[in-house]
Structure formats: C-alpha cells, structure tokens
Design a protein that fits this description.
The protein has about 120 residues and is α+β, with helices and mostly antiparallel strands. The protein has one domain. About 40% of the residues lie in helices and about 20% in strands. It has a two-stranded antiparallel ribbon with strand order 1-2. A hairpin with a 2-residue loop joins strand 1 and strand 2.
Length: about 120
C-alpha cells in the first residue's frame, strides 16, 4: 500500500511572501544581471563617423523597482517586481527600428538569453 502526499497551499502566506523585501531584492538582482547583458548587447556608435550618441544607449539602461497590482480570484494583490528600462531618447528606434535605424532588439535578445540560461 502506497501513501500519496497531498499539498494544500497556504495562498495567504504565499501572497505575503510576494510582498516581502527579499522578493523585491531578488527581482532587482535579476534585473541588474539582465542590465549587464543588455549593456553588452547594445550597439555602440563610432565618434569618427560623426555619431554624437556613441555609447549613450548602452549607458542609459536603468533598473527600477515596481509594485504591480495583480488580480487573483477577482481581488487586487500587490506584488513586488523590477523593470529594466532604457531612458535614451531614441530607445524605441533602436529596439524596433525604422527606415533610418536598423532593428537591434536589445531588450528582446536580453530576455531570450535570460530564458535560455534558466532552462534545464
């Protein structure tokens, strides 16, 4: 005769866990690791070619803490997270491209690399 274990989650406790400073710190640490990768993937212009913004895009990455309002079972729950952003004025063009700037997709490639690193 075999016994089966049964897990019953304490959802209130799990919800409290997601608001703890340690979770905020873990989210921030993950975003900082992604920031370093994004900086290495960012395109760098050449000042010899007349590029006024050489290195500005790579140095404009920033990690900001975020509190997200997540709906769970019809109720709002606040959860800690962090966001990696780029504050360069032309960040959208570098990410998505337009007729003058090719699409580099630095943040998308950063996310793909982070996902690949955590696959087992």
């Amino acid at each position: 005769m075999t016994s089966h274990s049964k897990y019953t989650g304490n959802y209130r406790g799990i919800g409290k866990l997601f608001t703890r400073p340690g979770i905020q710190r873990a989210c921030r640490n993950a975003a900082v690791d992604m920031k370093h990768l994004a900086e290495s993937l960012a395109p760098h212009g050449d000042p010899a070619d007349g590029d006024r913004h050489s290195g500005l895009y790579a140095s404009s990455f920033d990690v900001v803490p975020v509190w997200r309002n997540i709906k769970w079972k019809g109720q709002s729950r606040w959860r800690a997270s962090a966001r990696l952003i780029n504050t360069a004025p032309y960040a959208w063009r570098v990410e998505h491209g337009d007729g003058r700037v090719p699409r580099y997709a630095v943040l998308q490639r950063t996310i793909d690399a982070a996902k690949a690193a955590h696959r087992a």
